[in-house]
Amino acid sequence: MTKNRTCTPPSLELELEDYNPDPTIRVVMMPKDSNYMGFIFGGVILSYLDLATSEEALVRAGRRVVTKVMREVDFIAPVEVGDWVSFFTRVKSTGRTSVVVEVLVVAHRGERRSDLVKVTSAEVVFVAVDDAGKPAPIMGPDD
Ligand SMILES: CC(C)(COP(=O)(O)OP(=O)(O)OC[C@H]1O[C@@H](n2cnc3c(N)ncnc32)[C@H](O)[C@@H]1OP(=O)(O)O)[C@@H](O)C(=O)NCCC(=O)NCCS
């Protein structure tokens, strides 16, 4: 019987410990998302990163949020067509109207998705807004 061994760099294993085991979103990268060399466009990853972190912020804020700042998105490894990409998120801090979310992006490579590669990590600031699009206080858990 073949064992499903995972190959995760120790530094990434440590980083993953700070996040929920389940990613907020996970996507398989398709040829339409790539350039002619088969690498995925950074903008595609940014778009999913925005989506995943906004879900985390929305749940914490309890109301509509908009993306205010994306901090330091440094792509440290390319993403390839066929990679299964996970976006792990967590709330770093909250203010009166803002929620800061951290995200760790990991590519799972190979037929068994057992080779894990860190793609990037970043911090995104969201602002909760009212119906007029003006900053509004984030809700408490009982609101
Ligand atoms: C988000 C928006 C409503 C905020 O307006 P604003 O005038 O900056 O609001 P404020 O100055 O009152 O700041 C609101 C919160 O954001 C925080 N904030 C503002 N700029 C920040 C920055 N550069 N870094 C970190 N936090 C910031 C403030 O500290 C405040 O947080 P707090 O209430 O928890 O203390 C307005 O900038 C906007 O509509 N931007 C467009 C958003 C959007 O469409 N995003 C998608 C892009 S396609």
Short characterization:
With 143 residues, the protein is an alpha+beta fold. It has helices at 10-16, 42-61; strands at residues 25-28, 65-71, 84-94, 98-109, 115-128.
Decide which structural class fits the backbone.
alpha+beta
Q: What's the CATH C level?
A: Alpha Beta
* Second rung of CATH, namely the architecture: Roll
The biggest sheet, with number of strands, parallel, antiparallel or mixed sense and barrel status, is: 5 strands, antiparallel
Do you know the CATH topology?
Thiol Ester Dehydrase, Chain A
Radius of gyration, whole Å = 17 Å
Cofactors and ligands present?
Answer: coenzyme A
* Percentage of residues in strands: 25-35%
Number of strands: 5
Counting DSSP H or I runs of 4 or more residues, the number of helices is 2
- In which range does the helix fraction lie? 10-25%
Low-confidence regions: none
Instruction: Give the H and E element order.
Output: HEHEEEE
Mean pLDDT across every amino acid position: 94
Number of domains: 1
Kindly report the spatial arrangement of strands forming the biggest sheet: 1-3-4-5-2
**Ends: how far apart?**
52 Å
- Provide the CATH superfamily: Hotdog Thioesterase
